[in-house]
Amino acid sequence: MNWGKGIIAAYAFFVVFILTMVFWAMRQDVSLVEKDYYQEEIRYQDQIERIRNANKEENRLEWKYDADSRQLTLKYAKKHHTQGLSGELKLFRPDNAKADILFVMDGSSAEQVLELKKLKAGLWKIKAKWKSNDEEYYKEGSLFL
After folding, report:
1. What are the CA-CA distances from residue 11 to residues 5, 16, 25 (Å)?
2. Residue in 141, 145, 142, 136 with CA at minimum distance from that of residue 56
């Protein structure tokens, strides 16, 4: 093999490699965490206030996951379940937006149990947003099933 054939082979390999990478990159799912991320960014100061409200001791929302029964238990602060609470808890997969699931938060009692048996194992992000007595709250965390 002479130099000319080696250079042509290297160039051909490089072109095939680049085309393969372009084809592979175009097939990747690039779903966003939020569809209206720009509007969410503008309203972020409101989000900071919600987080600050939720971090106060009297407003705490706690969750506990039981791996054996695959249940998530939400424990509401006494202030919330006695004054009424409305909100939603969103579980979402960072790698697959189609797997997201939304639960309605019911503050009629001190605890709420959510069944997670149908959810795929792996990392889930938890986003809880609720309202009680005209104040809004927000808390997020991670859960590994």
Report:
1. 10, 9, 21
2. 136
Largest interatomic CA distance in the chain: 85
**pLDDT tens readout for residues 54-90:** 888 777 888 999 988 999 999 888 766 666 788 899 9
The tokens of 139 are what? 């808390």
Q: Measured between alpha carbons, how far is 55 from 139 in angstroms, rounded to an integer?
A: 8
What gap in Å lies between CA 13 and CA 126, rounded to an integer? 45
Q: How many CB atoms lie within 10 A of CB 40?
A: 13
Of 65, 62, 58, which Cα lies nearest the Cα of 82?
58
